[in-house]
């Protein structure tokens, strides 16, 4: 089909899937917000650490999407199935290592960032329970990435809907103590996440082994294949490093926020959740760009591959800027949905408005980064993230908070500087077109 039509055909199921996922986390945060500001800070800060430790799994998802897209575009689906089997091996192995590490190191991690004692006491058991879902998340990520690379965005959407619905029900039971369940507080949120992830992994494996989808798998695909496993790792590592650079940078940046106290940290975490809502159209058009760029390059249609990125960027910017207007205009009302403390709301409003100003710039970066990853160029987004986060945002945060001792809202505004730098770099890289020559 024409490129523009293909973009929307692939983008809307992913946008809907991410919308459902954010709906589930929004409901979670509202439930947690009813427990207190320390609970909000603990859940938000633990989530940042969890995603940092999940970087290899996220990198693996990017890798398998690019590999499968190229294989499908070249008309060799058997290579796609074999690569998926190796992705499962990689994901399961790294997940087990991550779980063991968190069980032993969780207290030291939170001590390193100097969180206040009330947040520390809540965060350590929460992160230990949450990390148990990593094994199931590895299976979900590999399966979703492979299906999206094959052009099937609807199956991950449908399974995501079922998983998130179960997630909301379980968290309603476990956080608040409803439907006959005792209340486990924020630990109940981690329990609900882990159980729903287990259900999602089972759904994906069942469908993959029945071979009813665009890509299937059999036991022979789990036989160790060093060549294909290395291909998965070779593309996954730069994407994982990008995630590590980003999440570690966010944690370092958050360390400057922690110094302002639990109230400011809680408001920042509310704002971070609103920031995650920004990723809904970004993820949809970024995934569409990855799939179509990979498939078009696999079929030697380089002009269509390059055109895809520009179309995804345009529509991503359009939707994101509309969201920015809404965020800026209704920042206080949005923050009030999650917390009732007026001091926390005030902090959240400042951060939400900084996020609102960045919406167009975020769309440019994330859609074009998705296009580059689909081509197999996972190094450029890594280097660009390094530039924006470590050469600009973190040094500027140190100057603003420690040297100039300004209010926290000035630190929030550094988000704008970060994305200006990233946009200039990624527009330059994409426009030059050398990424078309990347080998997968």
Structural descriptors:
440 residues; mainly alpha; 17 helices; globular
Series of secondary-structure elements, N-terminal to C-terminal: HHHHHHHHHHHHHHHHH
What's the total number of strands? 0
Question: Radius of gyration, Cα only, in angstroms?
Answer: 21 Å
What's the pLDDT, averaged over the residues?
Answer: 84
Number of helices: 17
Distance between the termini: 24 Å
Residue share in β-strands: under 5%
Number of domains: 1
**From the structure provided, what is the oligomeric state, counting identical versus distinct chains?**
single chain
Shape: globular
Poorly predicted parts: none
How would you sum up the major sheet? none
Helical content band = over 70%
Structural class: mainly alpha
Structure explained in plain terms:
It is a single chain. The protein has 440 residues and is mainly α. The protein is built from 17 helices and no strands. It starts with a helix and ends in an 8-residue tail after the last helix. It is 84% helix and 0% strand. 57% of the residues are buried. Helix 2 runs antiparallel to helix 9 and helix 3 packs antiparallel against helix 4 (77-112). It has one domain.
